Amino acid sequence: MLREPIVTIQNLDHYFGEGGLRKQILFDINLEIYSGEVIILMGQSGSGKTTLLTLIGGLRSPQTGSLQVLRNELYGAKEKQLVKIRRNIGYIFQAHNLLPFLTACQNVQMALELHKKFSYQKAQAISKAMLEAVGLEHKVNYYPNDLSGGQKQRVAIARALVNHPQLVLADEPTAALDSKSGRDVVELMQHLAKEQGCTILMVTHDNRILDIADRILHMEDGHIVDQEVSI
Ligand SMILES: Nc1ncnc2c1ncn2[C@@H]1O[C@H](COP(=O)(O)OP(=O)(O)OP(=O)(O)O)[C@@H](O)[C@H]1O
Fold it and tell me: Where would you find the membrane-spanning parts of this chain (predicted)?
């Protein structure tokens, strides 16, 4: 069976700054990511991992080359198109970015309501089910400040996956967690992603979770220098 890439990157460079301060950050990135893959992106601080992740996520615009995500070309795309593509991507960041004045359930529900396809009651039921899937059925009405770091990150995972996105981008999702919670959180992401058939691209410095990846990409000074495929 021919696998179709859901991300195709060709000759992508990226620069920050203007005039004399202009600095090249990414150099001729070429990459294909396939449906259902779990990919880990590693590399030293400043090597360009987050820049690449935010480009793929439509959070900044490509300046050169070609970047296709979920069959859309992002190079030259208008803000409106980028917003539409972002709705099909789940984001998980190091800081969970939960809204402190909303309960766990309301935080998840908010992501669903952006799609406006469900009634309030239906959205609430789906959000509760998602929190149950991440093992937080007893915490649905808790506020983020009353949850542990690992629990907050689980809520963030529930929020990222509740819309069944085809692509999940995670930037150091375990950085704020102890090793046991970190491991639990990525195993949960991997399990839910395989269940939903979505692709995960995760930036991490955490050597303890490398075994969950199908492929590991190494970045150095803005270049992808090496790829390892897990057996
Ligand atoms: N908005 C920006 N303006 C100017 N320079 C930036 C900007 N964002 C990132 N950079 C620079 O681009 C380079 C790559 O940053 P990036 O955050 O992509 O690296 P990273 O590999 O994710 O690093 P880390 O592991 O520390 O998060 C760094 O030198 C950084 O200082």
Answer: none
Q: Cα(197) to centroid of ligand 1, in Å?
A: 31
* Amino acid identity, position 117: K
Q: Are 161 and 196 in contact (CB under 8 A)?
A: yes
- The model's pTM is 0.89
Number of folded domains that form the chain:
1
Check which CATH number belongs to the domain holding 47 and give it.
3.40.50.300
Q: Which of 31, 74, 5, 46 is nearest to 217 (CA)?
A: 31
Give me ligand 1 centre to Cα 193, in Å.
28
Instruction: Identify the residue whose C-alpha is closest to ligand 1 atom 16.
Output: 48
Walk along the chain (231 residues) in steps of 10 and give the mean pLDDT of each run.
83 93 95 92 94 94 95 94 90 83 94 80 92 91 93 90 90 82 84 85 89 93 84 54
